[in-house]
Amino acid sequence: MARYVAVQVYTFLFALRYMFCRDCVFYINTLLPVGPALAGWFMGKKVVYHYHENAFAKGWFYKILAWAMQRVADRIICVSAYQASFLKRKRGVTVIPNAVPRDFVAKLHPDAETAFERKTVLMLSSLKEYKGTREFIELAGRLPQYKFVLVINDTQEHIDEYLKNTSSKSVNLTIYPRQERVYQFYNESSIAVNLTDPRKAIETFGLTALEAMSAGLPVIVPTVGGIAELVDDGVNGYKIDVHNIDRIVERIDNIFKDKSLYLKLSENALLMSKKYDETSMIDNILEILQ
Question: Domain residue spans in the chain?
């Protein structure tokens, strides 16, 4: 906290160098850089916040930062309607969803026919307890006829420590540590799931789900949050609470047993992903900044 305060004081003072820049806009990416935001407000500059978190699901510190944002910002960019709904302020609030970078999309190779034959379920996650790692391992155990791939954004050492008290994983489950080329996992899978526990955390957007859909993969996501806005239930995937593990098992099994259903979900997932275009996202942000 001392280091954070020191950085905010430093960036506040640093930002004062733009006092006589007439057309200067202060673009604050995430809640944390409150120092330069206050400096911009103090100097009467246009302050634009790009708000990625849900401060109201965090502690008092983030709630104070969100209060400050609503006081000093000229415009607030939210990444989902769900996230924006928590703000008391409605004036100057715009929803601009995130997008998958074009160079990442270029490395994806949607092929529904081939993907269906793989019968592979993918999840990209972290070691946070609310991310559903243990539930994914349970899914693999309950569906031994299919392949399960778990990519955890951490080191192998930390993964081994986290899972040391977990019952032996199934032979159909492969766990990978942090990867640089995650696109290859989408190209080698059939379905992607997000098992975040909504009682402990709620996704404000869900970029991994959008990446999966960009590869033509149907997705299973939580029932609430910004991530749920990406899915039309039964059209390009399903919205299921992680606590209803039986239903998730049933859905995965049904998808892999019904090729026509899989092809329909895959086609719609790819169509939905195209609505979240990087060029449109950038153009919308630039319009606000200008």
Answer: 2-95, 102-273
Measured CA to CA in angstroms, residue 235 lies from 9, 43, 218 at distances of: 50, 50, 9
CA separation for the pair 107, 254 (Å, rounded): 29
Rounded to whole angstroms, how far apart are CA atoms 2 and 14? Answer: 18
Distance CA 20, CA 260 (A): 63
Model-level pTM? 0.90
User: For 102-273, which CATH superfamily applies?
Assistant: Glycogen Phosphorylase B; (3.40.50.2000)
Residue 275 CA, distance from chain mean position: 16
Residue 22, H or E segment = none
Q: Please give the structure tokens belonging to residue 234.
A: 């039964």
Q: How far apart are CA 108 and CA 215, in angstroms?
A: 5
What's the pLDDT tens digit per position in 137-164? 999 999 999 999 999 999 999 999 988 8
> What's CA 224's distance to the chain center, in Å?
13
Residue 231's identity, in one-letter code, is V
Distance CA 228, CA 147 (A): 25
143: CB partners within 8 A, 6+ apart: 121, 172, 249, 252, 253
Specify the pLDDT at position 140. Answer: 96
Q: Which residues of the chain have pLDDT under 70?
A: 167-168
The terminus-to-terminus CA distance of the chain in angstroms comes to: 34
Residue 164: how many other CB atoms lie within 10 Å = 7
Domain 2-95 in CATH 3.40.50: yes
Residue 213 CA to residue 210 CA, distance in Å, equals: 5
> What is the side-by-side strand order in the sheet with 75-78?
25-29, 46-51, 75-78, 93-95
